[in-house]
Amino acid sequence: MSAPTSISDPSFKPMSSDAVARHNAVVLAVAMALGGSSPAIVVSLGGLVGQALASNKELATLPVSLLNLGLALGTIPAAMLMRKAGRRIGYIVGAGIGLAGGCLAAFGIASYSFALFCLGTLIIGSYGSFNQSYRFAATDAASDSFKPRAISWVMTGGLIAGVIGPQTVIWTRDAVQAAPFAGAFLGQATLALLSMAVVSFLRPAPVSVSSATLGGGRPLLEIVRQPRFIVAAVTGLVSYSLMTFMMTAAPLAMIGCGHPVGAAALGIQWHILAMFGPSFFTGRLISRFGKKRVTAAGLILIAVSALIGLSGTDIAHFWTTLILLGLGWNFGFIGATALVTDCYRPEERAKVQAANDFLIFGSVALASFSSGKLLNAGGWETVNWMVFPPVVVALALLAWQRRAKAIAPA
Asked: Which part of the chain is the Major facilitator superfamily (MFS) profile domain (predicted)?
């Protein structure tokens, strides 16, 4: 068993500046490409499988919602495990959870059990709670100047996952002839197994002895009450929740407007590319223009995407909305993640990161639950109008923090 990464290892010889961070960022980007494909597989097939297995067809999308719920519920246990056992052991355990979830989901399909399939997607979601912390793990050994780039490197793995996930569905969905789509979840389990091998190459971040002996640092309540944490958490929450809220409703709205399923699928594909494609340069933008400006730009792009959504219901309107939504999420979420890294000391990172992700992905779960219902009740126009109030609040908090900093005494 490897030594926990949060404890100094006397036998460990630190590498040159940011060398460990660069190595780990590459490892985590590959792990993200493999593990990050799991949500794409569940989102692509969860509703179809649910429709085939659920006796009550209104519950057809429940497996997808449980994916997000599992992600939210898993954030704190995942952080506690990694704090005690280290990043590497934690991520190996997480990949094992993903492997088990995929196998259980496949067994649920083969045995025609909707309950088992739902339990499988819930477990796959908890695997996602480990994957989502990769972006923070990449900053553990990074200098302040390299942190935004390390986060961006990991997020580029999501771009590759956006290809691997759908291709896994295409190539494996009929692998088990007696149980359509079970093969795709066995494919997801295989990707989790590969991820387990990849994360074993993580190197421990060099941590000073003083940091290692400070226990848990400040109380969590004291940290999360900091204005800068509140701003970082709210901007991340708004960016991710609104992206999920609109992305979930858009395909249904397109089909409701008479557009073909293929056009809706292509819209989601362009959306995923827009979400992760900019990660190649988002870190450099943050280094040049600052975390708050890039985060604000992301929030503004999300608002603009809603304006485009309100301007018409042609395919071009939907696709443009989804592309701008993806770009806005990338800038807003990566910027907010970088802001969170300014809020804690090294010995506090596990609990603060967990608290941040619990808030974000709890809200994402609520957004995914409510999106379809609001679309049915008020239509696509109402969905778009709901975007503006949260964006205004988040932008106002960023402006307030910048003004407070500007007038603070030297």
From this structure: 228-410
